[in-house]
Amino acid sequence: MVRAALAVHPGSGHGAAARALDAVVARIRPVVDDLAVVSADTVAQSRALMERAKDAGLDVVVVLGGDGSVHQGVQFCADNDVALAVVPAGTGNDFARALGLPGEPVPAAEAVARALAEGTRRRVDLGRLDGGPWFASVLCAGFDSAVNERVNRMRWPHGRRRYDLAIVAELAALRHRGLVVDTGDERLELDATMVAVGNTPYYGGGIPVCPAADPADGLLEITVVGRASRVDLLRILPTLRTGDHVRHPFVRTLRARQVALTPANDWIAYADGERLGPLPITIACTPSALTVVA
C-alpha cells in the first residue's frame, strides 16, 4: 500500500504549479492507494502540513513546485526516511533536471506516475551543513550569492531579466574576498570571486557549475573561481552553460567528502536557491541520504 502526499506551492513558477495541479493529481492518484493534496504558501505552512501527513502514515511526498519547494521537501523526507518525488513547476528546476525528469509539470508527473507504478526508487546523496539543513543541488557563496541577494531585493522585472540586471549590477560592484577552502586533504587559500559546492551539477536554471558532480558517488564537487576581473567574468559567463568554465586558469575544482569554507568574509551562502546564512560554514556529503522516485 502506497500512501502519498502531494505538496503544492501555488506561487511557484509565477503560478505554474497552481495551473498544473489538477492535471498532476489526475496522473498521480490512480497509481497510489491514498493521496492527500496539501497546499502551502509559506515554508512554515509546508512543514506543518507535511508533519501532519506523516502522522497519518506516509510513504512518498510528491513536491509540485520549484527548487525552493523541493528544498523543503528534502528536509522533511531526509529527516523522516520518506521517499521524495519531484514534479518541476518553478523557474530553475535544477534537482528535477539532475534526476533526468522532463522540465514541464505534466510530462514529469507522467514519468513520476510510471515510477510509482513500477516501484522504481533509488538512493541519492545529499549535502548538509554542519548541524544545519540538507541541500540537494548546489551551495554557492560569493558573486553568485550576491546576485541572489540582489534579486531577492528587486520587485521588477520578473523572470530571467531580473537575474540579468542583478548580474550587471554585481559586476559593477565586484569585490574579491579572502577565502580558505579546506577539505582535510587539500587546502586552498586565495582571493576569490566565488565558490560552488555541488551534490549535483546544476544551479540557476541548468548551469552546470559543478559539471562532474554525481549524487551517487559519496563526494562533493567544489568549483572555486579565484581573483577574476570583470573582463574575466564576462569571458567565463558564456562557457558556464557548457561546463567549459572549469578550463579557465583561475578556476580550480576539487572533490571531497567534506569541506570547510572560511573565514567570515561577508559572503552569504545559498543552497538550492535558498538563503542559508554567512560564512564560515562546514559542508559534508551524506551518501544515500534520500530516496527518490525516479
Task: Provide the fold topology.
Elements: E1 3-8, H1 12-28, E2 34-39, H2 43-55, E3 60-65, H3 67-80, E4 83-88, H4 94-98, H5 105-118, E5 122-129, E6 134-135, E7 138-142, H6 143-153, H7 160-172, E8 177-182, E9 187-192, E10 194-198, E11 220-225, H8 230-240, E12 251-256, E13 258-262, E14 268-271, E15 274-278, E16 281-292
Helix pairs in contact: 1-5, 2-3, 6-7
What does this structure look like?
Strands 6-5-16-13-8-9 form a six-stranded antiparallel β-sheet, with helices on one face. Strands 12-11-10-7-14-15 form a six-stranded antiparallel β-sheet. The protein has a four-stranded parallel β-sheet with strand order 2-1-3-4. It is α+β, with helices and mostly antiparallel strands and 294 residues long. The protein has eight helices and 16 strands. The chain has helices spanning 12-28, 43-55, 67-80, 94-98, 105-118, 143-153, 160-172, 230-240; strands at residues 3-8, 34-39, 60-65, 83-88, 122-129, 134-135, 138-142, 177-182, 187-192, 194-198, 220-225, 251-256, 258-262, 268-271, 274-278, 281-292. The chain has two domains: 3-120, 3-Layer(aba) Sandwich (Rossmann fold); 134-288, Tumour Suppressor Smad4 (Sandwich). It is globular. Strand 8 (177-182) and strand 9 form a beta hairpin. 33% of the residues lie in helices and 32% in strands.
